[in-house]
Amino acid sequence: MGEQLLLDLGGTHCRLGLARDAKFDAVTARIFKNAAFGTLTDMVRSYLNELRPGRIDAVCAAVAGPVRGDQAQLTNHSWKVHACDLISATGAVHVHLLNDLQAQAYALDDLAPDDVAPIVPGQADPDGARLVLVLGTGCNIAVAHNVNGRIFVPSAEAGHSTLPDVPQFRALFDTLRRDMPHLPVEAALSGPGLTRLHAHLSGETLSPPDIMAAAPKATLQSFVTLLGHVASSFCISHLATGGLFLAGGTARAIAPHLADNGFRDAFHLRGPYTSILRDIPVSVITDDLAALRGGAQYLAQQL
Fold it and tell me: What's the pTM?
């Protein structure tokens, strides 16, 4: 077996790395800005020219967008991903396209203890489904199921499901509908969503890093409260009794504010299902390369 190329394709950045015998080698990881390249194949060729690996026999591309057969479309970038283009750029025989959240979920068993930071304690069911919720340029979920000793992760595009009817956010939702009539979850719960929420509350437009640096109380309280409502709905929909794992740059930035500020109440209070939600532990994945690890795990199961 030769080497495998792993890709984590986001709306703003892409992460590339190599696996040998389907085991991810973190030393080979590189992060590129999408804007620096005209096409994805240009980026792949640049990476391979730098690393000079041996024969590439398989590719796993985790795409931040819907995957349909042998092609995918990034939701928050213009690039389309075609398996045939990756074959042409790498010479690989096998190309597998996944949603990027599927890859995050496939990584759960390969993360080191230091790669997962507990936020809200609970009593995880070791056989229960585990839900990964990413907050970055966009938002999405993936649910990892244990099936006969293997991980199975169905695809999802939950970031474009509709935000819940929470009375305190109705004015915000009316504002968001002007540009996004279908009122997707990621319109509010994402990096750009944090900017929209802050602009709605304060009248000023700031980047997510600037908002986190200023730490405006009203904005952060509103964001984590809405996150609690949405995450609770996702977890109860999938009975994610094995735990909720937040991932992505925005999730890591907001994590210190989740222990209070309304997140717990919004997440836990679910009528007759409150006891189930109280048992679901909440953690943050701190490993920025988790999707590459998950891609390697997926290839290990496929190859």
Answer: 0.91
